[in-house]
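cron nightly-structures :: item 1 of 1
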Amino acid sequence: MSPVTENELQELKDLIQELKTEIKSELRDFKEEVNNKFNSVEKHLIDLEKSQARIDGRLEAQKSAIDKIPDLAEKVGELKNWRQIAIIFFTALITGTLGWFLRSGKF
């Protein structure tokens, strides 16, 4: 082969080697970036799991209070009935007293 061809071949080999080195470097950088992002996502996932555990704990603590709501609503309903009964009783008492006075004529 001629010296010019050998020089060109050597330049091509060097160029291929440089490109190969660049590609390896970029691939290594890309892998590091992907690993960093993956680690970041894992950290966020762990934080979300901790937050969910805290929320579940709060809900579990409030479950007894939540379970009492129907009983409290029933008691409030009973109180409303007692109020109605008391109003009816006092109305009957006042009406009866007025009627008794009117019948006796001493009013």
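cron nightly-structures :: done
The chain has two domains: 1-67, 69-107.
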